[in-house]
Design a protein that fits this description.
This protein is α/β, with parallel strands linked by helices. Helix content is 41%, strand content 16%.
Length: 187
């Protein structure tokens, strides 16, 4: 299967791309950063997901992982996700769309625009699920709490903020990108 993973250069996106590659899928990574992944079954395309998107034929699984905190959160986390999904995900060949959201979309915690963008992802996920169901496809969101990535370094390094997150986290620990990738592959 052809899998498109946005935000594939680091953190959760990289771990998800690696998981699908290890399972024998052809993976296309879409990111504004260069990738350190390589291999016969991996293609990397550098682009800003807010702009013009490249033509990619045959996408069967779409994993929307591109995301930021405190940097055009609404434009990248929500509007770009919608733009990407409408281009690659809402089509007859699609088998699955997975949006990487955040527990903040449910709780409203953390940064205001970040929480709002991830709340929008939840609502949009439901919309897409309804529209691709006739193709026999699914659309889900995976909404982790604190994940131990570079993107979350600012909250990991802030003891008070990290404690607030842990207070709302059932397991009282941050997840690794590899743990999130396992859930992504399952979904």
């Amino acid at each position: 299967m052809k899998v498109l993973v946005t935000g594939a250069s680091r953190g959760i996106g990289r771990a998800i791309a690696e998981m699908f590659l290890n399972k024998g899928h052809h993976v296309v990574g879409l990111d504004r950063l260069e990738s350190s992944l390589a291999g016969d079954n991996y293609t990397h395309i550098c682009c800003d997901v807010r702009g013009e998107l490249p033509e990619i034929e045959g996408v069967e699984i779409l994993v929307n992982n591109a995301g930021v905190q405190n940097e055009d959160d609404i434009d990248i986390n929500l509007k770009a996700l919608i733009h990407i999904t409408e281009k690659y995900g809402v089509q007859k060949q699609i088998k699955s769309v997975l949006n990487i959201g955040s527990a903040s979309g449910h709780t409203g915690s953390e940064f205001p625009e970040y929480a709002a963008s991830k709340g929008g992802v939840l609502s949009y996920t439901k919309n897409v699920a309804i529209r691709i169901a006739p193709y026999g496809a699914t659309c889900n969101s995976l909404d982790p709490g604190g994940v131990l990535t570079e993107l979350n370094q600012c909250v990991i390094d802030d003891p008070e903020l990290w404690q607030e997150i842990m207070d709302e986290t059932t397991l009282k620990k941050g997840a690794t990108p590899e743990e999130i990738a396992q859930w992504a592959y399952f979904l």
